[in-house]
Amino acid sequence: MAEKFKLTIVTPDREFFSEDADMVEFNTTEGEIGVYAGHAPLTVIVKPGILTITQGDTVKNAALHAGFVQILPEEVTILAEIVEWPGEIDEARAVSAKERAEKRLSEKNGIDVARAEAALMRSIARINAAKLK
Amino acid sequence: MASMRDIKRRKSSVQSTQQITKAMKLVSTVKLQRAKGRAEKSKTYFNCMYDTVVSMLSKAGDINHPFLKPNNSPKKAVIVITANRGLAGGYNSNIIKLVRDNEWNKDDLIIYPIGSKGKDTFARLGYEVGEDYSSAIEEPIYADAMTISNQVLSDFAAGRVGEIYIVYTGFKNTVTHIPTRLKLLPIKIEDERSSDDKAVLDFEPETEDAIDLIIPKYITSLIYGAMIEAVASENAARMQAMDNATNNADDIISSLSLLYNRARQGAITQELTEIIAGAQAIS
After folding, report:
1. Domain B42-240 sits in which CATH superfamily?
2. How close does chain A come to B120, measured CA to CA in Å?
3. Which end of chain B is more exposed for a tag (fewer CB within 10 A), N or C?
4. Which of A14, A30, A41 has its CB closest to that of B205?
5. How confident is the model at residue B195 (pLDDT cuts 50, 70, 90)?
6. Are A40 and A26 part of one and the same domain?
């Protein structure tokens, strides 16, 4: 697996990551996928989860919440609406957000279920990412 | 001729105004630098977003997606981005003119103001004003753009509005800002050239579902981009306006100084003439 591809992760506010990588893994609406160089052209939608970037022996993790990914054979571009390194995550806040979302979902009276579910998934992704620090 | 004291008082009043305009100019220069930096940083994101949407739509062909065709409502939603504060030259009025002076019928519009100057003006002119997002323009963050785009998209989906426009001031460079009107929905991408340069993309999930998910993100990014550019333009416009004001104050001060000196000299001459005349009368 000598071949590398160019991985660019951009958010509306900054260029989050732009380096060569061996592999990148993340969660999509169709399930988790891992991408190597030479992948068929594909565009997928991101679901909240952990983003794992492998560069040789080093592995980097981040929490990726929303956006979509454009995969080309030599280039992968992640257009992320929200993405955070583990160091940027406030774990205590994520835990309380998770409890709040769970409570809302269990009560289920006149709430926006889709929104609460999305909040729950985001907080879980944040907690998991923060543990990988 | 005005008395020396009057001239002096006017001069000091102009001087203190000049101090204020100078300070405002410096503040907007700093803000402009920051806004410009943000606009540049976000550029990659918008370019990628645009490429993806273009290739997606050119591939999707003529599928019948609600986002791609107008619905029957005659109403138009217009997101109008102005400033919360004035003293920025023609910045706010140019935007208002752009909304008012065109083929749009006043009764068909629903204004979603971002920026209280626009909100107040359109409310006064009797336009229908929707939700107000003025606080968002102080410090544009992506979450605000998401709220706004959710609101207009749900109005569009519910059939309350048939078309969505955004009116903002595009930032070309520090001296050139272009009031811009952009149609957000239904989407019509004019040039489809970029679909040829890149390999044809596949979509997962299916293209129709992908459009459902990606178009709102595209709209959000357009709104966010417009907000960032508008903030940069606002500060550049204010910087220019305040620079002009400072220069004008300089001009006024120098002409007042001239007047003051002339009046002083006149007073001295008069005094001397009186003394000499008095001395001659005695001798």
Report:
1. ATP synthase, F1 complex, gamma subunit (3.40.1380.10)
2. 30
3. C
4. A30
5. very low
6. yes
